[in-house]
Amino acid sequence: MIDTNLIVLRVLAEYVARYLSGRDVEIWWVEPETNMAAVGAAFRNGRKGLIQIVPGLSPDRMLGVLVHECAHLRLHWDSLPYLGAWRNTRHASFRAVSTPEKTARFNKREREAEELEAYWLRWASERGESVTDQMGALLYWKAES
Ligand SMILES: [Zn+2]
Predict the structure, then answer these.
(1) Distance in Å, CA 37 to ligand 1 centroid
(2) How far is the CA of 11 from the centre of ligand 1 (A)?
(3) Residue 21 domain-assigned (yes or no)
């Protein structure tokens, strides 16, 4: 049976992703390739952005993951991994090496993404009740300058 609600959510997610990240983005509904515990991931894939989101999340959880990854695309484009390079070096030992500097940079980017995620979710929840209404509202978000 066709799950129309799921289709609507996923189509809306594509539009929200392009709009919030400010670039061409694809969403793959797959287990994120960054690590086994992740529910979402953001990559560069050629000139496009790529968001991977684990399928099967509740709609509001999905929206949280979506806007979090959009925040990374918007704020951290230059430091996002290329998917191809990421796959080629998946087992390379340098990945496993974590220095205090690397950890600090990672944590800073996570804080920045979480801040923008929270801001977008608040913005959306003030304008819509259901997740689809909130996603529709996000398509009218205007960055404050
Ligand atoms: Zn993150």
Answers:
(1) 12
(2) 22
(3) yes
pTM: 0.92
Report yes or no on 144 lying in a domain.
no
Span from the CA of 40 to the centroid of ligand 1 (angstroms):
8
Q: Calculate ∠ Cα 52-76-101, nearest 5°.
A: 110
Give me the domain span that covers residue 60: 4-138
Give the tens place of pLDDT for each residue, 25-81.
999 999 999 877 899 999 999 999 999 999 999 999 999 999 999 999 999 999 999
Tokens of 140: 């009218």
Instruction: Please report which helix (H) or strand (E) contains residue 93, including its range.
Output: helix 93-96
Question: What's the confidence (pLDDT) of residue 96?
Answer: 61
Phi, psi at residue 27, to the nearest 5°?
-115, 130
| Domains held by the chain: number | 1
In the reported structure, the alpha carbon of residue 137 is separated from the centroid of ligand 1 by a whole-number distance in angstroms of 23
Counting Cα atoms < 13 Å in the Cβ hemisphere of 81 gives: 16
